[in-house]
Amino acid sequence: IEVAKSTSKGIFMSQRKYVLDLLNETGMLGSKPLDTPMDSNQKLMVDDGDVLEDPEKYRRLVGKLNYLTVTRPDIAFPVSVVTQFLSSPWSSHWDAIIRILRYLKGSPGRGLLYCNHGHYRVEGFSDVYWAGSPFDRRSTIGNCVFVGSNLVSWKSKKHSVVAHSSAESEYRAMANVTCELMRIRQLLSELGFGDPSPMQLWCDNQAAIHIASKQGHKNHWR
């Protein structure tokens, strides 16, 4: 991880050299870059295309991409998708990895910037790709947490069970990010950076917000 510090702009973290080494190792340095790491219209199936002759190559590359998500939250979702096919990768799964590499080719130096915004407010955002997996109908959650308007935590993970509705799926995602908010608030308090203002949780599903609000009132009066 490369760290650059500036008194005026803050601290910037990236893995530029790691990305360039990865592109060189896979022969993708001369590839044409793409604007997105994944085709939004593509639905990867378990047995789509041909079986890869060297599945270990696929697994090693996915592992290296997983390490890259340390400073690249923009590829967290597509990497979580290709990770689901480690046991038996097919050619379509390999093509999805190549697309991620072509996206990285266009932005090898992208990373995380941390600067002073004058506060330590803690905020969390959650969202769900409901029933997004075409072969098991499970949803994928996505959440991120900001401290002082700086991104400090993020996750993209498939649910372990099938949600019967988008509201149920969104509510589960809210519960997940709430646990992360509490963990970060506790950590900040131990480090002496506590902020007395209430933490904020943002969600775009009105049904899940209503359920969480009703549950909050019930717990308050109990």
TrEMBL record:
Protein name: RVT_2 domain-containing protein
Top-level taxon: Eukaryota
